[in-house]
Amino acid sequence: MSFAPRRSLLILVPLAVVAAVLALLLLPGGPSTSHAAGTDAEPTKPITISGPFGRIALSGPWTYASDPQDQGTTKQWQKGGFTGKDVTIPYVPNAGRITGAAGVVSHRGSVGWYRTTVNVDAAGQYAIAFGSVNHKATVWVDGKQVTTHTGEFLPFEARTTLSAGAHTLVVRADWRDPEKMKADGWHRLWFNFGGINREVTIRKLGPSEVQAPYVTTTLVGGAAKVRVSAVVVNRSVERDISLVALLRRDGQDVPITFPKVHLKARASQRVQTEVTVNDPALWAPGSPNLYDLTLTVPNESAYQTRIGLRQVEKRGREIFLNGKRITLRGASIHEDAPGYGTGLHAEQMDALVGDLKTIGANATRAQHPLSPALLERLDAAGIMIWQGVGPTDSPGSWKSDTPAKAAVARQRVQTTLDEQQTHPSIIVWNLVNEIARNGNTGGQVPYIRETSARLKREDPGRLTALDVWATPVNYTDANPVEGARVPEKMGSVYDHIDAIGITSYQGWYSDPGKPMSYLKTSIQKFSGAVKKVFAGKALVLTEFGAEANGENPTTRPGGYAYQANLLKTTIDTYASDPDFSGEIVWNLRDFGVAPTFIGGSIRTKYKGTIRLVRGLNQKGLFTYNGRPKPSVGPVKAALARAAVDAERR
After folding, report:
1. Which of 127, 308, 503, 509 lies at a C-alpha separation of 20 to 30 Å from 248?
2. What is the separation, in whole angstroms, between the first and last Cα of the chain?
3. Quick check: helix, strand or coil at residue 456?
């Protein structure tokens, strides 16, 4: 099979295959919107493009009721008999209170109940899909419990048989006790926002399903060899099932066929094939070309997604995209907006992407799996992602320290891979936030070794990475990594790791207030020592910066000018080193954290003389409300200089 986007199309598969896919594509809303579902309000399209055909968003209206005393179950609220206020999903009920005494109470968590009415046109089995609920979710339909789930930023489904007509959908969300969550392996580095914080959809299930598509591109000469796979689920009797696909861009089509698979009733299997695309339109920052991919079991089920053809690889210390060396330049993001918390709607997602564009970013980083709808925006913007997956612990910590919790940690990675693999913007899977030395003794090492090896097998088109807790605490010229949690020598935990993200707060947690000339020298010596430790790994400065607000003298730590000068100095110094592959500022925007956090160790060095806000991390280039700080201009200029320097090499 071949495809030449700039020449005539050569079809080397039976026309019947193309006809089957196109027939399904031409049906409005998927296999049949009339057989899908509706709500009290007009049916709406999901905010996320990628997913099974026939999905309809259950955005609202929903009724929300707070249950701080956890009496709802006793009062039979699972049957839907409660009153409350009308909300639109996603909806985070405690997003309005993150600082002060009210923020302390809000962060401790609560229980909340959501209810809506779902109308379906035809009897059958339906899947109600949740993008995320924090932290524990219980789902009832018509008073019958249909599923439970634990953990935010992880999709799950409630499956049930419905008759034609109206049905009551109830969800209980419990996000109490973040300290217990931490002990159970669910630590977070951000505020404890509760509730349904990503979209909810419903679809009717047919005789088969197409799930978890994977796409991997290898460039050979002027062509792209594209490996495509997906899980086919047989929901009918034992039989042969044929999966076909269509890759489409600018009105031209690449038909794709898969080997026929024989499946017993209720069985599933991943099927795989390869197609060659000649003269492909590749995805990259500056030219984020995208293709529509539809996979279908003709007349039964289908999955649609939007992909980019690109090849990511490491050569020595360097990262290459489509055969050209790249450096990552930008700022990290959290899904957090005033009044919305982690429950971002389209407007807040667009604002984050807009801020990244404002600073000239070609990359960002996230400590948690991002919303698929936000990923689609980053795909379209051509912004690469250093994506955190699995547990997120505090620096040097590891709470998934029992066999049961370790199994959950591995499944979290697999769930994210299945949901996000087709996004071209994700170029790195980062497995740990700020690992210390050669890993924690409580099971972290086998988790990293096994998971990184599996990712390299299942998803070879991306790099694996670890963020290392590397800030030198007691820097000296004789020992520039004194106090940093970097190993003297890499252990086996790094065997299947391609890239190292360096966390280094020189000028903030280490040597705050020192002259920029001093910090430049200390950074050079520190980075030189780090390079020796991590020989052969790609190196990116993935976390650095300083808090800033208008309450502190502008040229001192905590002030706007100090933040701007420190970021400029850090970016310029690392960008001048050809052994580093980029700089990602922490953070794009200020964001909510636990109300116990008020700056960390910087306050012990500036006792009573630095003013920070409890419960708000103010290391952002933009304020929590989205206003640019004075550091935006200098950072944009420094990143632009870094890009020019990288091009000259």
Report:
1. 127
2. 38
3. helix
